[in-house]
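Exercise: predict the structure of this protein bound to magnesium ion.
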Amino acid sequence: MKVCVIPGDGIGVEITAEALRVLEALRGDGLKIEFEHALLGGCAVDATGKPYPEATSKLAREADAILLGAVGGPKWDTLPREQRPERGLLGIRADLGVFANLRPAILYPELANASSLKPEVVSGLDILIVRELTGDIYFGQPRGIEERDTQWGRQRVGWNTMIYAEEEIRRIGRVAFEAAGKRGGKLCSVDKMNVLECTQLWREVITAMAAEYPDVELSHMLVDNAAMQLVKAPKQFDVIVTGNMFGDILSDEASMLTGSIGMLPSASLDANNKGLYEPSHGSAPDIAGKGVANPLATILSAAMLLRYSGEDEANAVRIENAVRKVLAQGLRTGDIYEAGTQRVGTKEMGDAVIAAL
Ligand code: IPM
Ligand code: MG
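Solution:
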């Protein structure tokens, strides 16, 4: 496999280094994998003036998979929108067509106390959010800010377009139905069909697909209710499928049910299982460079990379078991530390995973 490694900004650099060491340890054990490094986000702006340089696009397109750390930081917050690090992230997602974003939210039994919810509400939690990633109001045209006549006089207005084509809904629907079929057999589609035409179409298309998947029990929920149900009774969910914007919000909410966003990986796949793999968390500028960030979400993203783009379930499971083992040994980075456990840094956590492998 050819993997394009994009450390990015902030803690992205430290955590991808650990994930690479884990993959290299497996290479020593027979895994065939090669790495090329590329720039994205703030570091790319500094080096080339662009958040998603052509050289990165070329390497990413040629690779079988991309392993990404995180992008962004206060240093680049005042740049115009086109140059912001987030533009790099949205640019690479759109460029590679990775429309299916899989965001698992799993509560590891060892971390049951990390959640802000009562243990009985979250124990055993295992949700998969399937978020559409290359459409919706994130990319819809037209969009902009311009001066117009309004009922309040001449002033600036800002607007965006929420838009989905039927086939765009169907292809993410397929990913979600198939994922549900391989898991608990329940799929909840989230929309706002009582207000938005775009999501009324979403509900119609998803509903029409259900007949093709008789083993999956389909339900629908309005997004405001889904946000509420996620904190009230999160274990009612198995797989959730939703659009880009609602998925952005609900996946942050779901990840924090586990209390440890530092533990959660993600995969963004195209139609051929080429994928972009990244932790669900951001670049955490406040702790960058201190060697204390939790590398486990990125290490678990590397496991997803082997599973989906490498069709190497065995090595994916080896990594996941190694992570469970270090948790069972009581090793914790600061974000998941609690009294009675052993606090370790980024590199020591990587060492422990490799030892467990
Ligand atoms: C995410 C992030 C991105 C998004 C930002 C950084 C553009 O919040 O991956 O969830 O909104 O998709
Ligand atoms: Mg987000």
